Amino acid sequence: MSNTRTRYGLLYSEYEYIPYCRVSFEKFVIAVTCLPLLAFIFCISYSVIFNFESATYTHCQVYNFLPSISAAIGSFSPQREIWQAAISLQALPRIFVAMEYLNHHQTVLKRDNFWLGYLACVLNIVENIALLTLSFFTSSKFYGIHEKAFITFILVSEIYMFLICILQKKYNKIKRHSLKWKKRCLLTNLIFIIIAGYLFMRHNSFCEPYVYSMFAASEYIVVLSNMAFHSTAYLDFQHKDLVIYKHGFALTER
Q: Which residue ranges does UniProt annotate as crossing the membrane (predicted)?
């Protein structure tokens, strides 16, 4: 009887373990990160150039020069469709990365701490689902759903980043460069979430010019630092390739 293996619930024979495609994991992570990054840059730029007055309008009716992320990605076309396409395309690759982190944590964690690896994986996937939800249920049409999805995204992403930093510091000390950048991204993210919250409340309370634009800029940094945190995956899986086989896929040593 032939020897078999399973990975991600897929069963395949070792005799059929022939690669169809091999891609360096660094390029894979860069491609996945660039999808939302380029879409984000396009949506902000296009909104400022072609939808400036509508995108920067608030109930206070004071002058602002930057649109909020919700306005830029959800209120206008083609920005809305481009953002939704980018977030949809990166969803499955991100789940793959989450599963690879789970496999990695299972090799470095002690058996009684396996639950930490599973928790990190679940948080990563929930963050991804929340991002999909807030992208398709826009604030202009589905404010209640969008708001809940946004709050879930922020809370879960913070817990996930914090947990990953703890796990990497405790169980993966050899990759200090990756941990250093993760800490920087986490700290930046936390600081600008606080700043964005303060500016949002100040705008609603005092209706000062430019305050909403500063809130929007803070939002941008929150999103960009989150993307940067996830892009550090290429540091954690350096010298590995994404290999596609007849009955599955996996990361293999280069």
A: 28-49, 114-137, 149-166, 186-204, 210-229
Strands (E), 106-174: none
| DSSP 8-state symbol, 110 | -
Contacts for 83 with CB less than 8 Å, ≥ 6 apart? 36, 39, 40, 43, 73, 74, 135
106 pLDDT band (50/70/90 cuts)? Answer: confident
pLDDT at residue 180 is higher than 50: yes
Domain ranges across the chain: 20-253
Judged against a pLDDT cut of 70, whether residue 13 lies above it is answered with no
Residues sharing a CB contact under 8 Å with residue 127, sequence separation 6 or more, in sequence order: 153, 156, 157, 160
Average pLDDT, the chain: 88
What is the separation of C-alpha 83 from the centre of its chain, rounded to a whole number of angstroms? 13
* Distance between CA atoms of residues 137 and 147, nearest Å: 9
DSSP states of 46-99 as a string?
HHHHHSHHHHH--TT----SS--HHHHHHSSTTHHHHHHHHHHHHHHHHHHHHH
Q: Tell me the CA distances in angstroms from 214 to 14, 42, 201, 209, 248, one per residue in order.
A: 56, 19, 12, 10, 46
Tokens 């050899």 belong to residue: 174
Q: Write down the H helix ranges in 172-210.
A: 176-206
Q: Are 235 and 182 in contact (CB under 8 A)?
A: no
- The whole-angstrom separation of Cα 178 and Cα 181 is 5
Give the pLDDT score at 108: 84
